[in-house]
Specification:
- By secondary structure, the protein is mainly β.
- The protein has six helices and 21 strands.
- The longest helix is centred in the first third of the chain and has 13 residues, at 51-63.
Amino acid sequence: MRLVSFFDDDVVRLGFESAKGIFAPLAGSSRLGPDDATLFSDMVTFIRAGDEARQVADRLIIEAPASAWRSPEAVTLAAPFLPSTILCAGSNYRDHNEEKAGSPTSGKEPEFFLKTADCVVGPDGAIIHEPALTTKLDCETELAIVIGKAGRSIPHAQALDHVFGYTIANDVTARDRQVRTKDGMVWYDLGRGKAFDTSAPLGPCVVTADEIGDPQALDLKTRINGELRQSSNTARMIWTCADLIHFFSTSFTLKPGMVIITGTPAGTAWSVDAELGGKWSPSEGLVAATRYCMPGDVVESEIENVGILRNPIEAA
């Protein structure tokens, strides 16, 4: 099942995407029972409703007449939803660790930082370039886990049972806020460097876990202005999706609609920034950045079986 949110005049609707187009149960459907309508008010409500909502949706999708399906080209997508909490794992690909300042090896646990709904924009939403905040705006394509079932201290073996689905995140980063140096020492400020307006594009859809299968076998790519900057596979994560769910659930009760982003591979603009300790390593097919992102650039974050999240960079 592929779920989207889209603008219907001034209302954001939950829709289901297939080869037929996009179907929104609350946009003119006459087959909803009075108790069913609340299941489709928004993405997070649908996720929380669990199997009941999935069963009703399956029936409606089968029964929906051709006239109920909208062409994707006629729809403007919104962010799939606005997660209350985005739990972020950094330093989760060895090749990215090796291209950046500081120790090239990871610690005993994932790097841990947070973003919020205030950071989120959707497909084709602008990433704002604000020189007062940063002159080194960088982008990172990441697989995002959407939690579907609540849990705390979740055993590793049951971790993936708590997943509703997956989407794409772009972990937009202010490198000159993130990387701090003094007297030969390097440390990271993951608050200022990671959490700010438009720093968490999400989308274009949420794909349910049953359609993704193994989340550790997905190709991942980033293109900026058509140039391939990142190309990897989620098999190269240091900590798997199950590892991260277990890890974060020791600190938080994971709740439906929370998101975990899982780190990024090599190929960021940081890798060519000698001032911040970048160490570019050539890789077949990848184009080294010549600068950080600037207004007019277009970033495409692609993950196999999910799609492409496209966002322009715009001046503040």
